[in-house]
Amino acid sequence: MNTKKILLLALSAMSLNAFSQGWGFGGGGTSGLSSYTSKKDINYVGDGKGYHSLDIYYPKEDKESYPVIVHIYGSAWSSNNSKGNADLTTLGEGAVKAGYIFVTPNHRANNDEGAQWPGLLNDIKAVVRYLRGNAESLKIDTTFIAISGFSSGGHLATMMGASRNVKEYTVGSTTVDIEGKLGQFTEFSSSVDAVCDWSGPVILDRLNCGNAMDLNSFISPMMNNCSASQCPDIYALATAVTFMDPSDPPYILVHGSADNIVAQCQSKLLYDELQKNNIESKYIPTGSGHEVNKDKVPDVIEFFNAAREKKLAAMEEEQNKVSNTTSNKPSVSIKNGHLFIFGGDGSSFSFEIIDIVGKPVFQGLYNSQGQGYDLSSLAEGVYVLKTDTGFNHKFIR
User: Fold this and answer.
1) pLDDT tens digit string along 162-178?
2) Contact residues for 196 (Cβ-Cβ < 8 A; gap 6+)
3) What are the residue boundaries of the structural domains of the chain, listed by start?
């Protein structure tokens, strides 16, 4: 090995060591969540690989289901096993105390097999699909799954939000499979309902907007060792701005002016683009360094709560709108976990209930007596009642 290669490897090791000491991985061990119920080392792809595993932490209040925050650790895209140190004592503790399930997934590192972009994003897409596919056993409320990430995890989180309805995408002469086909739950959605970015390097072709660490040696392995100037198309496909439109979920960005790893201007650039695209967004500049700022965790939880309430209100409004336009047809109500069907022309009909991804989860026969059907085993979420007479009705469990 020549001297130049040895020096490059030494510098990379020094940089990665800096990240591992708290700049990139975020810090915060498990002590803050040690008293909470958890499920560890769940393989979300089914391939037995450690980099495809996740941990789940539950609130202490026992409920049928909970909204979710998935949080991606920071590592300069260079760690494939840091879920156990993913800001558990900061955002993690704040999440479970606020009633959220807190999920921390591993993902492939930048030099792992298949890590070429969008490999790492495909991993996180598979995480969300796995949660939806196992909603009942994991107590997931599929009506609200938020995504959060620190540093390089913030980059992946911003991509999850902007590409939530994208399968494949082409820029110039380059086409990539954004969604991917990992895991056994590809029929489920990987869509997320809100995004938080903590100090993320989010616009990869403009990392020199301020004084910070040169991250190009960590990025290029994901891009076939190509620079942004050499391969602008693939870098565009790894930047949330490329995919933005007004249907994207709300974003909150938190970034410190003393950050010497990722320049604060990265978040400001992203915020400006979100505003241009009429995407609900909030930017919280702080004076802190490269970290998940514990003082700002309540702001993020409040933002997620507001996003959840807004989505539930919109769902209820849609449900009422459907009900008002079908007054001469059967009506549906949910009380104490039971489905009640009323009205119609008095004749019997068979029906089935479909979940948000089109999977039948319940079947029954309506006998015009207004009987109740026990749905307590179904997770909270949006469902559609379909009858053999052609009547469809959306409702919230």
Assistant:
1) 999 899 999 999 999 99
2) 146, 147, 148, 149, 154, 157, 251, 252, 253, 254, 300, 303, 304
3) 3-314, 326-396
